[in-house]
Design a protein that fits this description.
Largest sheet: none
Strand content: under 5%
Distance between the termini: 21 Å
Shape: globular
Helix content: 40-55%
Oligomer: single chain
Radius of gyration: 12 Å
Length: about 50
């Protein structure tokens, strides 16, 4: 799979509980970084909405 360059940053603020949920999902799914976990979760959410 070819890597697409990432050109945009989107700073977000999270609660401790939200960050913990992301980290838990990340470790359960063996995702190497928090950023990659957030990108994958966004992709899953968008696909579930049919976008």
């Amino acid at each position: 799979m070819a890597k697409v360059p990432r050109e945009h940053r989107v700073p977000i603020m999270l609660t401790d509980d939200e960050l913990q949920a992301i980290d838990d999902w990340r470790f359960e799914n063996r995702v190497p970084t928090r950023s990659e976990a957030i990108r994958r979760l966004i992709e899953i959410a968008l696909q579930s909405e049919g976008n």
